[in-house]
Amino acid sequence: MFSPKVLDRANVIEFRINKEQMLEYLDGTGKIAKIENRAERAADFVATASKDFCGSLSTEMKTTLISMFDTLSKIQKEFGYRTAHEMSRFITICKCFTDMSDEEAIDAAMVQKLLPKIHGSRKKISPVLTALWQLCYKADAVEIDTLNAMPSLDAFKYPLTAEKIWRMFQIAQDNGFTSFAEA
């Protein structure tokens, strides 16, 4: 896994596809998302990326980030100013250049910047994963340790984060240790 110094300065992107996407690709019917290479968009991106973003977050976004901070601080994995700034910047850029909702942008930021910092023994990590799991639900959370299967992603405000937490929790239960890297 990457060192904490690298994780502070990078966004971790996990590329995953499901069986249906692979079948579509192999059949030649699937489309692979492409990033458009346009000079005018590049100038807009650079101008937007150089702004200060922490003051531009909605109350919901700030509340969510503070909840994540409090939860991670219980295992001494809280984030600092740099991570808060990078997440604010990422969320704002997502909002400016994509059609992502606030929740989708927060979800992507959490998976890329916060979850990679979580690793350790089942005893140390399970309570934190459980608390983060509850933050992901739209309504009253179902306890992660009572489930035999991952619930429908429709039940979550932050489905990417919930799905990754589910996998990390299962690995911790099976192996007594977990980290963001599953390989």
Walk me through the structure:
The protein has 183 residues and is mainly α. It has 8 helices and 2 strands, in the order H-H-H-H-H-H-E-H-H-E. The protein has a two-stranded antiparallel ribbon. The relative contact order is 0.13. The mean pLDDT is 81.
Nutshell version of this structure?
With 183 residues, this protein is mainly α. The chain is 56% helix and 3% strand.
Which sequence of SSEs, written as H and E, runs from N to C?
A: HHHHHHEHHE
Strand segment tally: 2
Distance between the termini: 10 Å
Number of helices, where a helix is a run of at least 4 consecutive DSSP H or I residues: 8
Gyration radius (Cα, Å) is 17 Å
Question: What structural class do you assign from the helix and strand content?
Answer: mainly alpha
* Model regions low in confidence, pLDDT < 50 over at least 5 residues: none
Q: Characterize the main sheet.
A: 2 strands, antiparallel
- Percent range of helical residues: 55-70%
Characterize the overall form.
globular
Task: Please indicate the percent range of residues in DSSP E strands (runs of 2 or more).
Answer: under 5%
| Mean pLDDT value | 81
- The side-by-side strand order for the widest beta sheet comes to 1-2
What is the topology?
Layout: H1 4-9, H2 19-27, H3 39-49, H4 59-73, H5 81-97, H6 102-114, E1 119-121, H7 122-136, H8 159-175, E2 177-179
